[in-house]
From TrEMBL:
CDD domains reported for this sequence: Maf (cd00555)
Classification via InterPro entries: COMT-like, COMT_C, COMT_dimerisation, ITPase-like_fam, Maf-like, SAM-dependent_MTases_sf, WH-like_DNA-bd_sf, WH_DNA-bd_sf
Natural source organism: Crocodylus porosus
The keyword Ribosomal protein is assigned to this record: no
Lineage summary: Eukaryota, Metazoa, Chordata, Craniata, Vertebrata
Listed name of the protein: Acetylserotonin O-methyltransferase like
Recorded coiled-coil stretches: none
GO annotation (BP), single: methylation
Pfam families named in the record: Dimerisation, Maf, Methyltransf_2
Stretches assigned to the O-methyltransferase dimerisation domain: 344-422
C-alpha cells in the first residue's frame, strides 16, 4: 500500500478553499457519521459564538488540529499552549478518561494562572484538551521516538482501540486580584479499528514523520487514515477535539432550555440549539423534576482555585442559580432569567447593519470573491485601510456569517458571493449602498420624524421633501445611479415571488407605475408571455434604463414610457402595478395617484396586494379600490402593492 497519495489531506495550506472545507471533505470520505456530526456542530456553534464573542477565549493547546477544528467553526480565540507536563500518575485514575479529563484541566488551569499572574491578563474562558489512545488497558500518548511509535502502532495493528479526549472549559474571574476558576469538563470516546499492518507499512508510516506529535502514534486525518478499518463515534474526537460534545456543553452552559418550557421560547436566537436536545448526555442526567435532561449540576463547592488539583473526573459545571427553571404560581416551569435575545438583537442590530454596509462599500466582498482567501493584512492593503481596523471588520463579518474565517484567512460565505459581491447576478450591493447613504441618515432622524410627523429629508440632506425624486434622488448623476441600482437589486430579488403570487394570465396589458429599471416588468413578461408590460417612470430614469436590461431575453421586450404619474396621463392597461411607491408620499399625493388609477381602471374586480410595510396604508387604498369591487387582498412577504382591474 503506497501512502503518498493522501499526504496532507488534513494539513493546512494545500490550496483548498478553506481548512474547514478540506477537513469536511476528508471526513466525508472516511466517516459519514463524523462528517454529519461535525457539520451539525458547526451550525449550532455559531449562535453560541455570539455568547463567546465578547469574551476573551483562550485555547490552552499547541495542537494545530485543535486550533483548526475550533477556528473552522468561527470561534474567536487566542492560542496559549500549556506548559503543564503530562506526568500525572496514570495508575491513580480509576479509568483512562478520568486521566484525560484531569490532564485537560491541568493544562487549562496552568494557562489561566500564568496569564493572570505573569501576563496580568485574565482570560474569561480557557479551553484545555487531552487526547489519549487506550489498547489492552494501556494508555498511549505521543511517542517519544521512532521505536516508541513502532511499539505503539504494532500494538494497535489488527485491533480495535479507544480514543478518549478529555476537555476542560475553565471560566475565570479576577476578584481582588485573585484568580477564581470554575471548571466544566467532559470526555468523548471513539472506537477505531486498525487493519493488520505489515512491518514494511509500519516503518514507511513511521518514516513519514506523521506519528511523532500524535497520541497513539497516528493521525487519522492524514496518512494514518489508511491504517483504519472503521471508526465508531466522533471522528473529530480522534483528531483531537470532540466538537459536537463541546457544542452541547456550550449550549448547556449558555442556553439551558427547561424541558417543560421549551415550546415557549419562540424567539430564541439560536435555532439550531434544539438539534442537541435529543442527543444523550449521561454525565448530566438528572432525576430532579426541576432539572431537564442534561441540566447543569450546581456545585459551587467544587470551584477550583487556579493551580489546584481537582478530583479526577469530577463534573463541576458552573451556572448561576438564576438560570435554573422555577415553578411559577400556576405550576408552570419558567426560566426567571430568560435571556432577552430578541431585545438584544434589536439593540445591537444597527452595528451589524453598519458592518455589512462598510464592508460592502469598501468592496471587501468583491475582493474576496476574486481572490478566494486572504489574510487581514492583504485585505487592508488592497482597500487602503488600517490592518487593525480591517481585521475587526472582517471578524465582525465572520461572526455575522458573511465571511468564513480559517487559519488561511478570510473568504466569502456562499451568500456573500451570491448577494454581496457587486457583480453577481443577484447582487444586493446597490440596495446596501442606498441603505447606507440614504436610509441610514434618514433613520438617524426618526425621533424628529415621530415628534414632528414630517419627512426628514431636509435634516438629513438639506433637501425639501415635497419633490422627493427631483430633489433627493435624481438631481445628481451619482445619486440617480445609486438609487436606480438599489431599486433594481431589490426588485430583481423579489420579482419572481411577485410575478407568481397571483395568476395574472387573464391580463393582456400591465403598467408598472414607477417601475424604474423594469426588473419586475422583465420577470412578468417571462412568466406571462402574452402580457405586454409598460414601465412608466420619470424621464431621468427612463434615459438610464438600458444597461439594466437582461442580455438574452426570448420574450417581447418591455416598453418604457416617460412621464410623471402625478401630472401626466399614464398608459392604458388592464393591470396597474404600484411596487414600493406609496410609502414615499404624503397622504395627499397618494390620494391624487390612487384617484387617477381608479379613474383609469376598467370596471371589474380588483386585486390588491400590499407589502408588509404598506399595511398601514390599507384603509386609504381600499377606499379607492372598493368601488372597483375587490376580489383579492393579501399581504405578501415584503413585496408590493397591486391595484388592478379587468
Ligand atoms: C489519535 C490522533 C491524535 N492526534 C493528535 O494527537 C495529539 C494528542 O496529544 P495531546 O497531548 O492531547 O495534545 P498536544 O498535541 O500535545 O497539544 P496540547 O494541547 O498543547 O497538549 C493532539 O495534537 C491530536 O490532535 C491527531 O492529530 N490525530 C489522531 O488521529
Amino acid at each position: 500500500m503506497r501512502m503518498r497519495a493522501v499526504w496532507r489531506l488534513w494539513s493546512p495550506g494545500r490550496g483548498s478553499r478553506s481548512v474547514g472545507d478540506s477537513a469536511r471533505r476528508r471526513i466525508n470520505a472516511s466517516c459519514p457519521r463524523a462528517a454529519y456530526l461535525g457539520l451539525l456542530a458547526g451550525m449550532a456553534l455559531k449562535p453560541v459564538l455570539g455568547k463567546l464573542g465578547s469574551k476573551r477565549v483562550v485555547l490552552a493547546s499547541a495542537s494545530p488540529r485543535r486550533q483548526e477544528i475550533l477556528c473552522s467553526v468561527g470561534l474567536r480565540f487566542e492560542v496559549v499552549p500549556s506548559w503543564f507536563k503530562e506526568t500525572l500518575e496514570k495508575s491513580s485514575f480509576a479509568t483512562p478518561y478520568k486521566y484525560a479529563i484531569e490532564t485537560a484541566k491541568q493544562k487549562a488551569l496552568e494557562v489561566a494562572n500564568r496569564m493572570h499572574v505573569k501576563h496580568l491578563r485574565t482570560p474569561d474562558i480557557v479551553i484545555g484538551a487531552d487526547t489519549i489512545v487506550t489498547v489492552d488497558e494501556h494508555i498511549l500518548e505521543k511517542p517519544i521516538d521512532k521505536q516508541d511509535a513502532y511499539r505503539m502502532l504494532s500494538r494497535l495493528s489488527g485491533k480495535e482501540h479507544s480514543v478518549f479526549t478529555g476537555v476542560a472549559i475553565v471560566h475565570c474571574n479576577s476578584k481582588d486580584n485573585r484568580l477564581e476558576t470554575e471548571v466544566t469538563d467532559f470526555y468523548e470516546e471513539t472506537k477505531v479499528k486498525f487493519a493488520d499492518l505489515s512491518e514494511e507499512l509500519l516503518w514507511e508510516y513511521i518514516h513519514s514523520g506523521e506519528p511523532m506529535d500524535k497520541a497513539g502514534g497516528y493521525g487519522i486525518q492524514a496518512l494514518g487514515g489508511m491504517l483504519v478499518e472503521y471508526v465508531h463515534g466522533d471522528f473529530l474526537n480522534v483528531v483531537g477535539f470532540p466538537l459536537n460534545h463541546f457544542c452541547k456543553k456550550l449550549v448547556e452552559l449558555y442556553y439551558p432550555p427547561p424541558k417543560h418550557t421549551i415550546h415557549h421560547i419562540k424567539h430564541d436566537s439560536i435555532p439550531s440549539v434544539e438539534t442537541f436536545e435529543n442527543l444523550s448526555d449521561e454525565e448530566n442526567d438528572s432525576s430532579s423534576p426541576l432539572q431537564y435532561k442534561g441540566a447543569i449540576k450546581l456545585d459551587r463547592s467544587k470551584t477550583h482555585s487556579s493551580g489546584g488539583v481537582c478530583s479526577p473526573g469530577s463534573s463541576n459545571i458552573i451556572k448561576p442559580n438564576c438560570m435554573m427553571p422555577v415553578e411559577n404560581q400556576n405550576g408552570v416551569m419558567e426560566n426567571p432569567d430568560k435571556f432577552p435575545s430578541k431585545i438584544l438583537e434589536l439593540l445591537d442590530g444597527f452595528r451589524a447593519s453598519k458592518a455589512l454596509f462598510v464592508a460592502s462599500k469598501l468592496k471587501v466582498f468583491d475582493l474576496l470573491k476574486n481572490k478566494g482567501v486572504l489574510q487581514a493584512v492583504d485585505v487592508a492593503n488592497t482597500i487602503n485601510s488600517s490592518v487593525c481596523g480591517t481585521e475587526r471588520l472582517l471578524d465582525a463579518c465572520a461572526a455575522l456569517g458573511l465571511l468564513e474565517k480559517t487559519l488561511q484567512g478570510y473568504s466569502n460565505s456562499d451568500s456573500a458571493n451570491i448577494y454581496l459581491a457587486s457583480d453577481s447576478e443577484d447582487s444586493l450591493h446597490g440596495y446596501i449602498i442606498h441603505s447606507d447613504d440614504h436610509l441610514w441618515p434618514l433613520f438617524t432622524h426618526l425621533e424628529s420624524a415621530v415628534k414632528e410627523g414630517t419627512m426628514q429629508n431636509y435634516r438629513a440632506f438639506g433637501k425639501k421633501s415635497e419633490n422627493l425624486f427631483q430633489d433627493s434622488y435624481y438631481q445628481s448623476m451619482e445619486v440617480k445611479q445609486r438609487f436606480m441600482a438599489a431599486m433594481h437589486s431589490i426588485a430583481k430579488l423579489t420579482a419572481k415571488d411577485v410575478a407568481t403570487a397571483f395568476d395574472l394570465s387573464q391580463f393582456r396589458s400591465a403598467c408598472d407605475l414607477g417601475g424604474c429599471t423594469g426588473a419586475l416588468a422583465n420577470e412578468l413578461v417571462q412568466k406571462y408571455p402574452n402580457l405586454k408590460v409598460t414601465v412608466f417612470d420619470l424621464p431621468e430614469v427612463i434615459a438610464n434604463v438600458s444597461h439594466f436590461q437582461p442580455v438574452r431575453q426570448h420574450t417581447a421586450p418591455v416598453t418604457f414610457t416617460s412621464g410623471d404619474f402625478f401630472k401626466d396621463n399614464f398608459p392604458e392597461a388592464d393591470l396597474y402595478i404600484l411596487s414600493r411607491i406609496l410609502h414615499d408620499w404624503t397622504d395627499e399625493k397618494i390620494h391624487m395617484l390612487l384617484s387617477k388609477i381608479s379613474a383609469a381602471c376598467k370596471p371589474g374586480p380588483a386585486h390588491v396586494c400590499l407589502r408588509r410595510g404598506e399595511r398601514f396604508k390599507c384603509d386609504l387604498i381600499t377606499s379607492y379600490i372598493y368601488p372597483l369591487d375587490i376580489e383579492e387582498m393579501s399581504f405578501l412577504k415584503g413585496l408590493t402593492l397591486w391595484s388592478s382591474a379587468v
